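Write out the 3D structure for:
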Amino acid sequence: MSRLPWKQEAKFAATVIIDFPDATLEAPTIEKKEATEQQIEMPWNVVVHNDPVNLMSYVTMVFQRVFGYPRERAEKHMLEVHHSGRSILWSGLRERAELYVQQLHGYLLLATIEKTV
């Protein structure tokens, strides 16, 4: 039985330790920024953008599944995306908005969040 070349190389492996006696680590500075209650609760919009890939019926179905919209409302938003290039599907707290965007990405739709003005 012949020996494999990688096994022969393994017995020549060595560990190299590099010592830097003059090097000192400084403690990192941590800046703490606290958001105000108004900033936390500021509404965020979930926006879906138009893409040339997905079928209208598929987009309608996704809106129904993710947001629980009835077919008529889902179709209204789908047509708004189709004609205007975007539609605001939901507005509320940022954490929930991020969850909706993540779910829409899971269905391969282009979605973003934006602050309301």
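The two ends are 75 Å apart (CA to CA).
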